[in-house]
UniProtKB/TrEMBL annotation:
It comes from Cajanus cajan. InterPro entries: Gypsy_RT_Integrase-like, RNaseH-like_sf, RNaseH_sf. It comes from the Eukaryota. This is Pol polyprotein. The lineage of its organism: Eukaryota, Viridiplantae, Streptophyta, Embryophyta, Tracheophyta. GO terms for molecular function: nucleic acid binding.
Length: 59
């Protein structure tokens, strides 16, 4: 989501939501590039919860 007004250098928010359990992972980011998204998904989703059956996006 974003861009938002810059705060501490961050202007975007990356959200990951489990629609079954309603669990949310959120991270403030300085850019909205794909490298950051891949790193976020690997470290915050795959490593903690395993690989999901499906990933949806808003684009």
């Amino acid at each position: 989501m974003g861009p938002f007004p810059v705060s501490y250098g961050y202007s975007y928010i990356l959200l990951a939501i489990d629609y079954v359990s309603k669990w949310v992972e959120a991270k403030a980011t300085k850019t909205n590039d794909s490298k950051f998204v891949v790193d976020f998904v690997r470290s915050n989703i795959f490593c903690r919860f395993g690989v999901p059956k499906a990933i949806n996006n808003d684009r």
